């Protein structure tokens, strides 16, 4: 404690000249004060923000909740009372009927045959390209990255006719392999763009130390860089599986046989020429959407980590 010297030489404790905190302020660790009115404004703004987010989440989920509600009601009840009415009966009969009538197991397998290899191939090819673009400097580095980014903006509908003729000439028409390759080609640009930016944020000292120890390019890629990009790969894997699994455009254009179609085409089996049971279609749509929901739940932690990595840098 500091002291002041009096005339007689005795030391007297220094008096605290600072007055007490005003009732309208709060102390902080740095010695600064925050007005209570400002704190109340921050709390009010946070409440409004959370209310808006909850409202938008409800609006976003409303179609899914409505489809779920419709799928649990018999068609006879909705035909009599309308879709906007309180239910008398809730049952899972529509799900059992959709599962068997639409032959969902067969089409689920077709979608997995297309989506799983396509996701693996696009992540592997994109990670290789992103590693070269992010960790090596050469003349056409930026030009190649711009090419991948620009190719990702190309509308798919523009090249339907030349791509259709190309697949006919190569023998890839009406082949699930052709669907896999076209999805890999169109998803490469986005994945390379994301992974290259992610890899640029990694310290270059890691690969430089590996080079000093004699590690080659493949070892730097597989044992040093790739383990550090797991969050980004998980986020991209989740997005790519959802996009490729839900794709119906390329299957409609490049597949002829119904037995090779993905599960998104199975919903057409529930539509008649003169009558469509919308309750049954809603149940089938919920079943078709379940795999993407399961994938997101399993990879949710890595997905969020991949999206937020580097957001505070």
Describe what you observe in this structure.
- With 313 residues, the protein is mainly α.
- The protein has 13 helices and four strands.
- It has helices spanning 36-71, 75-81, 93-101, 104-135, 141-152, 160-170, 176-200, 204-212, 217-228, 230-245, 249-254, 278-298, 300-308, and strands at residues 3-5, 11-13, 25-27, 33-35.
- The strands form two sheets. Strands 1-2 form a two-stranded antiparallel sheet. A two-stranded antiparallel sheet has the order 3-4.
- Strand 3 (25-27) and strand 4 form a beta hairpin.
- The longest helix has 36 residues, at 36-71.
- Mean pLDDT is 81; it is low at 1-14 and 16-29.
- Its main location: membrane.
Distance between the termini: 42 Å
Q: What coarse outline follows from CA principal-axis ratios?
A: flat
Rg, rounded, reads 30 Å
How do the SSEs run, as a string of H and E?
Answer: EEEEHHHHHHHHHHHHH
Low-confidence stretches: 1-14, 16-29
Main beta-sheet strand count, sense and barrel state: 2 strands, antiparallel
**Residues in β-strands, percent:** under 5%
Membrane topology: Multi-pass membrane protein
Domain ABC transmembrane type-1: 108-299
Pfam families: BPD_transp_1
Subcellular location: Cell membrane
Summarize, please.
The protein has 313 residues and is mainly alpha-helical. Helices cover 65% and strands 4% of the residues.
Main attributes?
single chain, 313 residues, mainly alpha, two-stranded antiparallel ribbon, 4 strands, 65% helix, flat, transport, transmembrane helix, cell membrane, MetI-like_sf, transmembrane
